[in-house]
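input
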Amino acid sequence: MDFIEFINQRHSTPPKYLVAPAPSIDELTLMINSAESAPDHANLKPWRFLVIDTDQRTALGELFVRALARKEPNTELDLLERERERALRPPMLIAAIASITPNHPKTPEIEQFLTAAAATEHLMLAANRLGFGTIWLTGSRVYDRYVMTGLGLQAHEHLIGLINIGTAAINTPQKQPNRRNVAVEYWQG
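output
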């Protein structure tokens, strides 16, 4: 399959369809090194990735519960349990982190966030090419500074997503994303 066809067939795999095995250390190294080719004004490398493997997912689930309970103290127990389970669905999570250089003379923060996002997409494409299913998830827990601090992020760092990764289960629905047939547009001045 050529590269354009590969990209056009890329799709997200819901976490409930991601099973073991997760990527090996060698596969993770290939995936993370793929991020290095992301467009990067001033060569700041404003991203990093934090792997949350099988054994650490329980601790992450507890962090999610604490964050939600702090924000909404009257949360019902079943909702807290659902929050805990979010960390346990895939066999591996990768925290995508934008590591921003504030007030950089050449590269505004928005460009650094975009670079971190491009690096994350490169990582996901590499994972897909290696045969793994992925989905980039966000939500209130991702943007919660309490969760970011619990993951060890510094003040200049922002969690931009949790990449759920694993092997797509045999019973994964083969639903292709709804693609638009986009026309080329030219600016008319």
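quick obs: The first helix runs from residue 3 to 9.
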